[in-house]
Prior knowledge:
Mean pLDDT: 96
Amino acid sequence: xxxxxxxxxxxxxxxxxxxxxxxxxxxxxxxxxxxxxxxxxxxxxxxxxxxxxxxxxxxxxxxxxxxxxxxxxxxxxxxxxxxxxxxxxxxxxxxxxxxxxxxxxxxxxxx
Length: 111
């Protein structure tokens, strides 16, 4: 059963940091690229960052210098480290493998 389960969201103050995690199961984790997306109410889904098999990464301009993606192939986890948080980072954060998406984890940034 292929599954992605996000966790680690929560509330943070502007300028703060959070780390969201995505634990994968049911497929050869190390053989796939994965990505992090977010969606805020009323907004389109936004690609934030991807990481490939060799841990090469892409980071969207909107979060470049603030968000860092990483992967732990031994434990089938992909992380997104969020720093220097802004109000506009408030959204549901999802990890994706191809067309598969997890249930998401909410990040809320306040003053």
